[in-house]
Amino acid sequence: MPQARKQKSRIVKFAVAQPVLRARELAKRGIHTAGLTRLTRSGALERVGPGRYRLAKNDRITEHHGVVIATASVPGAVLCLLSALRFHEIGTQLPSDVWLAVPRGARVPRLVTPPLRVVNISPAIFDIGIEVHLVERHPVRVYSIARTIADCFRFRNTIGLDIALEALRETWQSKRLDLTELNRIARKLRVQRVMQPYLETIVL
User: Fold this and answer.
1) pTM for the full model?
2) How far is CA 159 from the centre of its chain?
């Protein structure tokens, strides 16, 4: 069936070019779900969520592949908290979930893999400290080191104060922390007073 082979070739080409295939977007290009189903059954594709697929075997896969899949599946999301710490190689946390920040009220799709931990952020402060990094040739939005540390103190009851202190201490000792930037962001996030006693202990 030449038509089926042609469609398979087109799907694989799209899958190589982007981390997550959306059935709805492919349908607009004349590729229907039957082709995706056949490739999934053959093992060429994996289903990561409703209407979402990825290439099963990809030589570009890195340790951050789950991050790529998560951020590609949730447009506009930003890697935050424990996943941002891991991405920046800060601390000892190895989160099993991918922590994503989304604007409060944003719709988040269900994923089979990777598991997500969604943090709702006020739109007024959502864009502060966003960086864009290329991972597996795809742009990944992640909060900066300063924003991540400020967030760790802001969500200390969720992740634990010990993690926030570990991140603060490690980045200061390794000279990766811009105190001016940290204070600027902490003021906007209204955690400067919370952080101040710990900053004085670690920095001074």
Assistant:
1) 0.75
2) 17
Taking only the tens place, the pLDDT of each residue in 37-66 is 777 777 667 776 666 776 666 656 666 778
Instruction: Give residue for tokens 């670690």.
Output: 202
In one-letter notation, the amino acid at residue 194 is V
Distance in angstroms (rounded) separating the CA atoms of residues 202 and 29: 56
The answer to whether 102 and 120 have CB atoms below 8 angstroms apart is: yes
Block residue for tokens 């890697």: 79
Sequence letter at residue 141: R
* Rounded Cα gap, residues 171 and 179, in angstroms: 10
Condensed to tens digits (0 to 9), the pLDDT of residues 136-183 reads: 878 899 999 999 999 999 999 999 999 999 999 999 999 999 999 999
Alpha-carbon distance of 134 to 143, in angstroms, equals: 14
Q: For residue 114, is the peptide bond before it cis, meaning its omega torsion is within 30 degrees of 0?
A: yes
